[in-house]
Amino acid sequence: MSPESIKTEDITNYASAVMAIEPRRQEIYAQIQSIVKKQQVSEINCTKRDTISRLPGDVQKIAVAYCNQAKKDIESYKLTITQFNQITATAQGNPNLEKRIQTELIRLNQR
């Protein structure tokens, strides 16, 4: 996906989805951290089952519930998981796209 091919509407939808899932992601991470105590919580990636299957049973359930809700949130902003992940990956390698997203996040936060 080229940064130029990402429409303004997609950036708005992406930023809206990020705003919907990020607070929950932080909350879930803290909850998981409190359950596993001093163990290091490795990266949890909803699209990579092995990152979830490595977690203890109770924590797996929390992670799966989060992933299911995040998927619903992303889709409610008219993006597929693939589109969301492509925008994320593209932005990580493109400062201009990252700036467009940050600008949109700021705009949405000021509503």
UniProtKB/TrEMBL annotation:
Which Pfam families did the record assign? DUF4168
Question: Which superkingdom?
Answer: Bacteria
Q: Which residues form the DUF4168 domain?
A: 8-101
For this entry, the protein name equals DUF4168 domain-containing protein
